[in-house]
Amino acid sequence: MIDKARYDKPRFGAIRRLFGGDRPLESDHSLGARVLCIASGKGGTGKSVVATNLASLRASRGEKVLLVDFDAGLANAHLLLGLAPRFDMGHVISGDVEAADALIEGPEGLMLLSGGVGRHALANPTRRELDRLFRALRPLEQEFDLVIIDHGAGLGYGTVAHLAATSTLLIVTNPEVTALSDSYALYKRATMVNPHVVTGLVVNRCPTEAQANAGWDRFRGASERFLGHSPEYIGWVPSDDAVLQSVHERRPVSLTRPQSPAGVAIRTVSEWGPIDKARTSRAFYEKARKALR
Ligand SMILES: Nc1ncnc2c1ncn2[C@@H]1O[C@H](COP(=O)(O)OP(=O)(O)OP(=O)(O)O)[C@@H](O)[C@H]1O
Ligand SMILES: [Mg+2]
């Protein structure tokens, strides 16, 4: 159930408060929310941990945040947030419920659209089903300040459509060469379908800063050499038992243990400047629909 009191307040009031006074926002509000895609190519790098923490932190700052778990059929953002959604993307695709009614409220008032778990039909949505989903999500863009999309592993056409449509991409990778290689492949694909995408990279679950720097150097080296450009290095998140405890407790580490090494590092990631400017030139889900064709 959407908390009406929260979501009926004038749009963008929260962001205006963030930036102070009545300073006009930099772009046209009618276009809807800012959108941040979180992806990695490889599985298990920490995308959902980062996505759920960013969504909670941004919501705690007063922003109206929608977290979309786009790991259809293998969703787990709801587990990390301690939620038991009644509906998921599958119900929206089938038209059983309106997108707004499929949302569930999480920590700090963030809203989650779950990707659904274990239903075969959901694991490989067709282009037509994705088109139905994107069309259903389009009106929600007007209701939120920030939409964070947590992608699953791989480079399926659903993910590529998002990459083509987004203005802002956050790559969450690990220091291992396998993760760096898959993230490089994702970055290459993203910049091929969307040359202007603003991309930041985080090296997550890293034992030491030296290893994070070495991973970043490797990524940047390959990117600069073969593509002639590279993402912005946002920073690294240490490998931290506080994250494991928070997963066990089903509460984001940035809320339960904000002073832990991972909690502090993730807060820094949540303050990455381009998230405040992540608005597309046209409605995001319209662009994503077009990219599906
Ligand atoms: N900084 C960290 N320190 C310690 N453990 C971590 C850290 N980040 C993630 N993990 C662990 O890694 C696990 C996988 O993380 P997560 O589910 O976020 O990965 P993912 O990239 O979303 O995976 P998938 O590709 O399957 O969606 C978490 O359950 C958590 O136990
Ligand atoms: Mg995930």
Blueprint (SSEs and pairs):
Layout lengths: L3 H4 L5 H7 L14 E6 L7 H14 L4 E6 L6 H4 L8 H5 L10 E2 L5 E3 L6 H4 L3 H11 L8 E6 L5 H9 L2 E6 L3 H17 L4 E9 L2 H19 L4 E7 L2 H9 L3 H4 L4 H10 L13 H9 L1
Parallel strand pairs: 1-5, 1-6, 2-4, 2-5, 6-7, 7-8
Antiparallel strand pairs: 3-4
Helix pairs in contact: 3-13, 7-14, 8-14, 9-10
Bound molecules: adenosine-5'-triphosphate and magnesium ion.
The site of magnesium ion (MG) has 5 residues, from helix 3.
Would you kindly provide a written description of the structure presented here, covering whatever features stand out?
The protein has 293 residues and is α/β, with parallel strands linked by helices. It has one domain: 3-Layer(aba) Sandwich (Rossmann fold). It is built from 14 helices and eight strands. It has helices at 4-7, 13-19, 47-60, 77-80, 89-93, 120-123, 127-137, 157-165, 177-193, 209-227, 241-249, 253-256, 261-270, 284-292; strands at 34-39, 65-70, 104-105, 111-113, 146-151, 168-173, 198-206, 232-238. Strands 3-4-2-5-1-6-7-8 form an eight-stranded mixed sheet, sandwiched between helices. Strand 3 and strand 4 form a beta hairpin. The radius of gyration is 18 Å and the shape is globular. Magnesium ion binds at residues 47-48, 71, 76, 150. The site of magnesium ion (MG) has 5 residues, from helix 3.
Helix count?
Answer: 14
Return Rg in Å: 18 Å
Overall, the morphology is: globular
- The chain-level mean pLDDT equals 89
Q: Into which percentage range does the β-strand content fall?
A: 15-25%
How many beta-strand elements? 8
In the predicted model, the low-confidence regions spanning at least 5 consecutive residues are 1-29
CATH H-level superfamily: P-loop containing nucleotide triphosphate hydrolases
Strand line-up across the major sheet: 3-4-2-5-1-6-7-8
Assign the CATH architecture: 3-Layer(aba) Sandwich
Q: Helix proportion of residues, in percent?
A: 40-55%
CATH class: Alpha Beta
Distance between the termini: 33 Å
Question: For the report, how would you describe the main beta sheet?
Answer: 8 strands, mixed
**Quaternary structure annotation:** single chain
H/E topology pattern? HHEHEHHEEHHEHEHEHEHHHH
